[in-house]
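Bug: token stream looks shifted between consecutive jobs. Job 1:
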Amino acid sequence: MKRVALVAVPLVLAVSSARGGTIGFDPPIQVVDPSIDTQVVFDLTVESLVQMASFNAFDLVTGSDDLAVVRWELALPYDCFDCESRPVGFYPSDLKFGWFGLAQQIGEGTLLGVLTVDVTGLAPGEYTVVVDPIRDGGLSTVTLGVQSEPMSGAGKVVVIPEPATMTLLGLGGYLSLLRRRTLACENFRVKL
């Protein structure tokens, strides 16, 4: 009589969730010195659409946990239903903006608007401003008729120390290397 070994094989069901389109922040990374710059500007464009080829309306919530989102300026001709950008409270600092183009259909590559972010008084580091339909409860979408697609994207602000601090850090690093080299030479001479 033959023995048969039973092997347990896990069954994995992949659930396909339709991912939405992408909002591009241009430039994607802004490097700033807050002693010189007080605000940075991102152009927001439609980088990609997944479920739709075009749209004639959008709602976007741009927000940040660390940056002050100051202003949203529309770059499209419009029949506007929500033209005043306003805070909505999904982030410590955010703005919601809506647009409706009655006789228009626009698609990928379209410049939607310009987002201004305040960088005054920020410590050196990386900060992010995002469009995230999960965090904003599904508000960030593009729409054509009854079909809508969630949109997401992110821009990064890198705050660098002012030049005097950078010079001091560089000088300290150079002196540290010089000291190590001097000690290495002294140790070498002592052994001879």
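Job 2, same session, no restart:
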Amino acid sequence: MNAPHDDSAWLDAARVEAWAGEIRVNLVRLIAILLFYCRHLFEVFVSPANSPARGHYHIVVTAIALAWASEAIILHVWLSRRQFREWLKYAAVLWDTLMVTLICVAAGSPATPLALLYFGIIASAPLRLSLRLVYIATAAAMLGYLFLLGYYAWYVIGFHRYYATPELRISRSTEAITLLTLLVCGLFAGQVVRQTRRIVILGSLIRAVADDREGEAPAEPIPRVSAQTARQEPRPPRNEAGGDR
């Protein structure tokens, strides 16, 4: 019931559940790639011939989807063979962040709804039961969004034109609120991991106490004497002076 025992219980549970969590995240990743790409194909199908959804944008999105799906398939093969390494979850999170950033770059603006995928990256981190991974996922998502802001302002629009044209600018309040929301989402994700750790440690303590009680010899029961039985017990005779002999 000491601290090393608690830590070992948490490390054992985290090691197994990190592998299981990576499998679940990868399955959701594959389904999400398929759903989002099908939505893109539907948009291409219903758009006119001169639509921005066609042409170069369609080619770039298809290449990103293929690269992302290839990573998910390779990861599935490794995980199905139980070839799980500690660095794998960090590489998967950073790769997801890179893919989201690239697809937002292809969309041309950080105002695209695709930027909401950064929240999905943070939400997937607690499933690996790693507090460090939550921090890395949160930092990577915030840095990815900051890169999008810089890419849009300094490359797509141009530094001087961006700050000289208010209509093209993204408001500071929008930038700050998005970054703060990503940070708060990461804090909540970290609390999920902390709460899970407390549950695992509490469960190990309860099992340890139960095992200690089962190992102890049962104590002999103490006979209970009722008040009526105590009154019926004979008292010793008293001497003439009123005291006991």
